[in-house]
Amino acid sequence: xxxxxxxxxxxxxxxxxxxxxxxxxxxxxxxxxxxxxxxxxxxxxxxxxxxxxxxxxxxxxxxxxxxxxxxxxxxxxxxxxxxxxxxxxxxxxxxxxxxxxxxxxxxxxxxxxxxxxxxxxxxxxxxxxxxxxxxxxxxxxxxxxxxxxxxxxxxxxxxxxxxxxxxxxxxxxxxxxxxxxx
Amino acid sequence: xxxxxxxxxxxxxxxxxxxxxxxxxxxxxxxxxxxxxxxxxxxxxxxxxxxxxxxxxxxxxxxxxxxxxxxxxxxxxxxxxxxxxxxxxxxxxxxxxxxxxxxxxxxxxxxxxxxxxxxxxxxxxxxxxxxxxxxxxxxxxxxxxxxxxxxxxxxxxxxxxxxxxxxxxxxxxxxxxxxxxxxxxxxxxxxxxxxxxxxxxxxxxxxxxxxxxxxxxxxxxxxxxxxxxxxxxxxxxxxxxxxxxxxxxxxxxxxxxxxxxxxxxxxxxxxxxxxxxxxxxxxxxxxxxxxxxxxxxxxxxxxxxxxxxx
Lengths: 182, 310
What we know:
The structure holds 2 protein chains of 2 kinds.
Chain A: E1 2-7, H1 9-27, E2 33-38, H2 42-57, E3 63-66, E4 97-105, H3 109-118, E5 126-136, E6 147-153, E7 159-163, E8 172-177
Parallel strand pairs in A: 2-3, 2-4, 4-5, 5-6
Antiparallel strand pairs in A: 1-8, 7-8
Helix pairs in contact in A: 1-2
Chain B: H1 17-33, E1 48-53, H2 59-70, E2 74-79, H3 91-99, E3 105-110, H4 115-120, E4 126-132, H5 138-152, E5 159-163, H6 170-181, E6 185-189, E7 205-207, H7 210-216, E8 219-222, H8 238-245, H9 249-254, E9 260-262, H10 275-278, H11 285-304
Parallel strand pairs in B: 1-2, 1-3, 3-4, 5-6, 5-8, 6-7, 8-9
Helix pairs in contact in B: 1-11, 2-11, 5-6, 5-11
């Protein structure tokens, strides 16, 4: 297995910063916008963006975590059940602009489930998608992100992993490629 | 530990501690779901479940039905009164007929102990025991332990007394297994005639005096006197039972500590406990009912994930 860092900690921070300013360009002061991170890894993106946004704006941004386990389309197609994480959405998203956040956009199936799960909390005015890494040309469904941290071209056999200072010890994005003879 | 170690839920006796913790963790997520504005998720939309109740039930049947509906399963209901069981059909025939209509899971309550195990060994569907005679009632024990965990933070190390009609109670047996697996201490309390002779072999304490039992415990689970299962008189009168084993406000007030009061329902107010106890803050009887739906959703979800696609 070969590993290649495609976003180091310095660029990682720049990327988060850029995404924040892109969000502000569209959503101004976030008075009618809520940010929702998809469990489990999307909430790391959310907390980093939230922290940075609040620093820039000087006000609190409404955020929530959404677990999509019960909305997945691969239930009973896997060996073991997926154990759900917590959903923390204590507000109604009726007529709100929602920005969904996840770490890696790949087949688009997680986002499809996320859109379904979101409807249990009301009818949003608009839903956008932010992803830290976009594995382009690998979609199973017609879903694209509105805000992208980094776009990468990958093979199906490869794996992209977003690592966090709080969890793995360093902010970076790593691409894993299996050895060609293996 | 991401999957249950069993293929059916026949009794708590077969579960491991990990299984129970997995069920609780999944139930936490479902509890959040059933408190949303839209209380339905599509997980089980391609699963069909038959609820077979060969014995009366209100709470358990409603609870299972809601749990199934909230996960979008298709359901069919059968109760003994209106079925061919009355015409002499055997249990296996009844169930196999229902399964030919492509049913994936059976939730069954039956008056005979062992009925769920018997069925699980003979039919090609997941079986959930919703009470088999005086044997086990696993989902009740799970929701009881879940409610204790919710109120007290954990079950481990807690002292729980089960009071009342132990000999006829499937709830008592399942509770003993479940609480012990989770590391709680269990005591049973009731009139000598309602306590099985060899119960101490399960590793539980036995106490015949309610006051002493209450002084010892953190949680009191008051069971219903099951008059319908009593063929002979086990105690002189209901009044005498309630004088000795009924929980009153006075007894609660005189305790030096605050204990939690549980009841699997239906309550005979004035027998197992007085109304002011049943409606007090220390009683978590209605929380038990709410948690029942979440716990049953978790059990069904985890077992359904083991149904393999053709």
